[in-house]
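Quick start: read one record
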Amino acid sequence: MRNNIVHPGAGELTYEIRAIVEIADQLRALGVATRMENIGDPVSKGERLPAWLKQIVSSLALEDSSYAYCPSKGVLETREFLAERVNARGGIRIGPDDILFFNGLGDAIQKVYGLLRRESRVIGPSPTYSTHSSGEAAHAGQHPVCYRLDPERNWYPDLADLRLSVKYNPAISGILIINPDNPTGAVYPEHVLREMVDIAREFDLFIVADEIYANLVFDGQRTKQLSDVIGDVPALSMKGISKEVPWPGSRCGWIEVYNADKDATFARYVRSLADSKMVEVCSTTLPQKAIPQLLEHPEYQGYLDQRRRRYARHADIAYQLLGAVPGLRVNRTNGAFYMSVVFEEGVLDATQSLPIANAEVRGLVERITSADGVALDKRFVYYLLASTGICVVPLSSFWTPLMGFRLTLLEQDEAVFTETIRTIGASVTAYLRSSASPARRAPTTRPAA
């Protein structure tokens, strides 16, 4: 073309969680029966939505107002309802004008990073959810800037690493917190959140908190949210109904703004987010109108508790079974519905494989895994998919040097889930033992997790 029209950050827009689906589709066409454990969609994994929930939505669909534009910030009654829920926690107080709706958090994430000055960076966790790392990197036209999550300490943030990164990189203007975390399933204790807020206060930063899984916690404790600990630090909290209700197809999420009045620059930035929604007109009306009725329904809390108990049970099963596999490091999941598993350093190499009976399938996987730059954990993930049909996500795709994989806890049938985890564990053992280098072969025993 006459001019280069490609944004300098275009190369940062990657999303392996869905990209792997294209390969799974090809394998399915070749006769491989797949089990998709790659994406956090409870509905596609068979969760049955209760009749009362469907009745609320269907009743709203009969109202003419559900088909109209709503205010640019969102339905006022819903924003008032959500502000009251924040205020009832006893931390920071907000009003309905401090809430801004988006067409899902993917939309919110792109706008939050896209409306920053290009020179301003938001430091995020590593590993991190791909939509955040890609969105932030694309806005800057550079790779993400990250602080480390420590698999040796329950995937909690390495706060010393965060502090040093902020101190010596003056471009960092904000800190991203994902709690409960995707992809690790970690839930941060109060003292960790408070120290992260303290770092933001010390270096005059704002905080972005992705709290989409805030009510999907099963560690037996009342989890602190950002609004409980934020104090006077400017911040944005991202929430939604896609995982909690669950209604991922609603594409309905919102941002809660904290302390915009404490900093003029932050207030101007928040106004730009609201202006962007005004240019767009508004977000989808019907799901917003449903939120108060759904979350206040007398059966809602019991329904949510039942889901949390199932995820907790599956977290225990995966932790026990995979924790006993030589060559893996496993932490129990305490929130969300994911588990990230790390390969011990040095156990992977480019000679390992799994048996694949179908020659056409084997050829496809060998072509994919022999390409330049294919990470060693991605190689394992594709052999696992072709050999067993189980689709997980390589951990390296979450912007981390760690090698491993992420799986979901969403399978409805406990027996099927248990068999899936056993198959993954057996496949790891077979894969590691297939190494052409005896020095890299996994030990035959390891201490119990």
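The two ends are 57 Å apart (CA to CA).
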